[in-house]
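Worked example

This section walks through a single chain of length 210. The input is the sequence exactly as stored; nothing has been trimmed or padded.
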Amino acid sequence: MAETFNDDKPSTAQPNSRRLALGIGGAVVVLVVAAIWLLSDDAPQETAETPQAALDNAPTLQELAEQAPTPAGDDAAPDFSVITAGGGAFTLSQHLADDGRPVIVNLWASWCLPCREEMPAIDAFAAANPEVVVVGVAVQDDVVSAELFAEEIGVTYIIGFDEKNEVNDAYRPLGLPATFFIHPDGTIAKRHFGLVTEESLAEDVSQLFG
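Given that input, the structure is written out below as tokens.
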């Protein structure tokens, strides 16, 4: 006898298809609800912890400089000796011992555009304030390029060249230009990273050295 099949037997595939459809439908509902919530006023808004806000509130270079430890680990200005334009030499400790005037050490480089911008102002300040010695030291630079740069700018204050990278390593500027105000006793009174002007130098000297 030929084998017969019962066409009325329920298909086992129907419940699985029904469960799949219900699962997809539920996921769609969840996504719709989440989208509505994100667009509502209850969703988290941008706070001070967001990346953009953190960037806006980041400290400036000068603020970092004021928080950083001094180059020597205390208030002492690292001693240095550099060859100067014209074949002379400048040694910080010797100047402080023999001369006694406060010193402004300005670190610069020939490739530094802000350095070019501020050097005429530094020169004007140095000429008007002989009670302070200004020394510009080229760091992170090729000596020949630095010499040509100094000649082009034509400043009259002392210009030195950090040939062995010793001044840069000792003072560790956060950027260029960098200016250090040094008391006659050899301690650092202030560090400034960024542009200076004739007016800002005069104000700092008045406040720091009287």
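What to look for: The mean pLDDT is 80.
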